[in-house]
Write a structure and sequence with these properties.
- The chain is of the alpha/beta class and 474 residues long.
- It has eleven helices and 21 strands.
- Strands 13-14-15-16-17-18-19-20 form an eight-stranded parallel β-sheet. A five-stranded mixed β-sheet has the order 2-11-9-5-6, with no helix packed on it. A four-stranded antiparallel β-sheet has the order 1-3-8-7, with no helix packed on it.
- A hairpin with a 2-residue loop joins strand 7 (76-80) and strand 8.
Length: 474
């Protein structure tokens, strides 16, 4: 009997020594790992994203809700089987976000094993301005004075005249051919016996020393003569490559002769590009200052057609920065404005911004809004229209679209045109531009566009203002 008991004790001891009881083995556990996510790390997402789903390798539950955050703020979440869904409200546009799930915030639903930390980066989409509904009739509220609070007396007089005239009559204008002369205006006078109200010069070669180019002293002389004879002076600027590497202002062309000058460098005040830009602006300021000293206000239209085409992009370098093209251009305009107005104290300028629009641009308001320098930097809104399909017809849709950019507080001009719209159509449809400016050469003189007979017709129309009908603004 004793031997049998000892045998049983020995068997039990051996079984315990071999682990036969199973009590010393740790239980099997599984750490949850992230297998997939509903969005990709580093991707761009809609502001109405609403939620992000994170799928784990095993069913999970939430142990610590405060450990689930978006930009440091606790967000709500639910766990269903293997999927953790994190929910949040509408996000801000163009903003970087980080979703964080701290270690231990999520655990294995079956055995409580904590999941490791997880983070997800994403950026929200850029804001798209919806196209506004264009009104049948515009209720204008034109700014009472120029945007430059220090505008000189002649500039204020010119602005006030244009404001009072806006919507009543349209001023006529011609573009210099080539840049410093009044020969197109002279041609119109020879054919009609009247001068256009406005002539426009171009500072295109003012930053170069071409042996064949006319002196810009000639521009000053001609502008002074035009002003003294009762006309309005306008100036624009085909701004050649500030670096001097090329003589181009085009950033694309068919023959590959173009500039790669980077407008984005305007943000780096230590860059060679920035210094070259400032040097060119200072050169232009010297000429504009001469006009100011002679008491001549100027309709000033630099950096025209900056956006270029909705389909093909920019064709001028000032709309072709390597960063955000629109933001680069807006900053360049503001630097130009600040340098001329606040540094050089030029108070004789009426600032004209040219919108780029075409019929294929279905997000037209978003495009022009992002390129707009802002109400504090612009007096006039203009557009350049060369449309062989419409010819002398009305451009009422473009007129309203441009006007909407300034919330109907800015006067609107047909800053360049091939065809002069018919006065009767403008009166009938409502596209009563402040002024029109025909481009030079055939656009002014050829019967294919306007020609002598058409100039006579519009000058005989009481809606069109010629130079002899302008008041004395001196």
């Amino acid at each position: 009997m004793v031997k049998r008991l000892l045998f049983i004790v020995m068997i039990v001891f051996l079984l315990q020594g071999c682990g036969g009881g199973g009590n010393d083995e740790p239980p099997v556990t599984i750490t949850p790992t992230v297998e997939r996510c509903s969005i990709t790390d580093g991707s761009e997402q809609a502001v109405k994203l609403g939620s992000v789903s994170v799928e784990y390798s095993v069913p999970v539950s939430i142990k610590n809700m405060s450990g689930i955050t978006l930009e440091g703020e606790t967000v709500s979440a639910i766990a269903q089987n293997k999927v953790l869904t994190v929910s949040f409200g509408d996000l801000d546009y163009e903003t970087d976000y980080i979703l964080k799930i701290e270690s231990g915030a999520v655990v294995n639903k079956n055995d409580g094993t904590p999941a490791g930390a997880f983070s997800l980066n994403f950026r929200t989409e850029k804001y798209v301005y919806p196209n506004p509904e264009l009104p049948a009739t515009i209720n204008w509220n034109i700014d009472p004075s120029p945007v430059n609070p220090s505008a000189g007396i002649q500039a204020v007089k010119l602005y006030s005249y244009l404001k009072n005239n806006f919507g009543r009559r349209i001023l006529s204008g011609t573009m210099a051919n080539f840049s410093v002369e009044t020969n197109e205006a002279d041609w119109v006078y020879e054919k009609t016996g009247k001068y256009p109200a406005i002539t426009c010069f171009d500072f295109i070669n003012s930053t170069r020393d071409y042996f064949w180019a006319p002196s810009y002293d000639e521009l000053i002389t001609n502008a002074e003569q035009w002003w003294n004879n009762g006309g309005i002076v306008a100036c624009m600027w085909h701004w050649r490559d500030p670096s001097g590497v090329t003589d181009q202002f085009y950033c694309q062309s068919d023959n590959d002769e173009y500039t790669t000058f980077d407008a984005a460098k305007i943000f780096d005040t230590s860059s060679d590009e920035y210094k070259a830009i400032i040097s060119d602006i200072d050169t232009i300021a010297g000429y504009l200052k001469q006009l100011q000293e002679k008491g001549i206000p100027v309709l000033w239209r630099p950096m025209h057609e900056a956006e270029g085409s909705y389909r093909w992009g920019a064709w001028f370098w000032w709309g072709n920065g390597t960063g955000d093209r629109a933001a680069d251009c807006v900053q360049l305009w503001k630097v130009l404005y600040d340098r001329l107005v606040n540094y050089h104290k030029l108070n004789n300028l009426i600032w004209v911004w040219t919108v780029s629009l075409d019929n294929s641009d279905y997000l037209w308001y978003d495009d022009i809004k992002k390129w707009y320098p802002g109400d504090d930097y612009v007096d006039f809104l203009g557009i350049d229209i060369y449309d062989d399909n419409v010819k002398h017809g009305s451009h009422i849709d473009f007129f309203k679209k441009v006007a909407s950019l300034g919330n109907y507080k800015k006067m609107v001009t047909l800053a360049e045109t091939g065809y002069i719209p018919d006065p009767d159509e403008m009166l009938s449809n409502g596209d009563k531009w402040s002024y029109f400016m025909t481009w030079n050469g055939d656009y002014t003189e050829s019967d294919s566009y306007n020609g002598a007979d058409y100039w006579k017709k519009i000058f005989d129309d009481g809606f069109v203002v010629t130079r002899d009908l302008l008041p004395d603004m001196k």
